[in-house]
Amino acid sequence: GAGVSQTPSNKVTEKGKYVELRCDPISGHTALYWYRQSLGQGPEFLIYFQGTGAADDSGLPNDRFFAVRPEGSVSTLKIQRTERGDSAVYLCASSPDDRDTEAFFGQGTRLTVV
Amino acid sequence: AQSVSQHNHHVILSEAASLELGCNYSYGGTVNLFWYVQYPGQHLQLLLKYFSGDPLVKGIKGFEAEFIKSKFSFNLRKPSVQWSDTAEYFCAVNAIGGGNKLTFGTGTQLKVEL
Fold it and tell me: CA of B75, closest CA in chain A: separation in Å?
């Protein structure tokens, strides 16, 4: 597709459940980023991939959060044992590489934990 | 680590008024600077960016920003706003060589009234 695609656009889950959020980057972009945006805040960095490997996961809040990008294209953010505090918009971005280039964002997945 | 401050959280202007949104960052090294915009119901889009060179940068839709290194500032300006500029504006930085991961400010919600 022409832009970064994220699915689902909305996800409601019960506390304690497991969720997966998917990101399909712009074709050919080797760098992929996950951010989390809570209400009234700017996006906060979670993790980024250069190719298949996680180059920096310093923003992941705890070990309930995990992300993969097995073939260097689509990425999945996985959250185990969800908590109400995980409710936020999860944003994915991609860029041609991880040097000084523009990042292109998807529409985000709004996660609500009830 | 970097941090970004946006001083105005909510701004209301009448059409044709001039706009200036403040952005200051904190970081000991060299950064790239960005302004992103999020129109209602849409994804984050790049408005303009500064990597190097002329500190006055021009972006889309008549926006411009000036990088003042001595003040660690990158304020966004537009001489005459339109109703269609109603959106949320985010200032962001990344550290050169830091993998392109962005640190965002908390955002400024701009409402332009007819």
Answer: 17
The secondary element (H helix, E strand) that includes residue B48 is strand B45-50
Residue A1: pLDDT over 70 = no
Residue A102 has a pLDDT of 86
Given this model, what pLDDT does residue B74 score?
A: 97
pLDDT tens per residue across span A38-96: 998 999 999 999 999 999 999 999 999 999 999 999 999 999 999 999 999 999 999 99
- Which residues of A fall within a CB distance of 8 Å from B100? 31, 33, 48, 95, 97-101, 103
Choose among A8, A38, A40, A41: nearest CA to A24.
Answer: A8
Q: Residue B46 pairs with which residues in a beta bridge?
A: B36
Distance between alpha carbon A24 and the CA centroid of its chain, in Å? 10
Give the dihedral of Cα atoms B34, B39, B44, B47; nearest 10 deg: -30
A105 vs B contacts (CB less than 8 Å): 36, 43-45
From the centroid of its chain, how far is CA A17?
A: 18
Please, what's the b/e burial string for A78-94 (b: 16 or more CB within 10 A of its CB; e: otherwise)? ebeebeeebbbbbbbbb
